[in-house]
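Sample entry follows:

:::
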Amino acid sequence: MTKAGPAPPVRSVLSLAPVLAQVGRRNFGEWSQLKALIQQGEAKVLEQVQREGGVLSHEEVVVARDWFKANPVYFQFKDMPRPVQVRVMSSLPPYVGVDFGDGDNATFDPDTMLCTFSD
C-alpha cells in the first residue's frame, strides 16, 4: 500500500500556509507602519463622529471623509511607484481602507490585517 500524502487535516493546514504567510507579513516591516496608520485612521473616524463604534450614519461618513480630505494620509511602500492613501471607505467597521490607485482598494482588520474587502 502506498501513502497518498499528508492526512487531510495536514493538507488543509499546508494549503493555508501561503495565506497565513501573507497575513503575517502584514504585521511586520512596512506593513506594520501601514497597520499603525490604519489603526490611527479608525480612531480618527470615531473621534470625528464622537462615538465609540457601530454603523455610521450617512452624515457621519461625510464628516469623517471631509476630515480625511482636509488631512490626507499617505504611505509610501519602497517598492511601489506612488504612495497609497488611507481613507474612509465604509460606514461599517473597519471604516478606513487603503486606496492603492487605479481603482484598487482594500480594507483590513486593523488588529490582524486580514483583508476584509478588496476590489
In short: The mean pLDDT is 86. The first strand starts at residue 73 and ends at 75. Helices lie at 8-25, 29-49, 58-70. DSSP finds three helices and five strands in the chain.
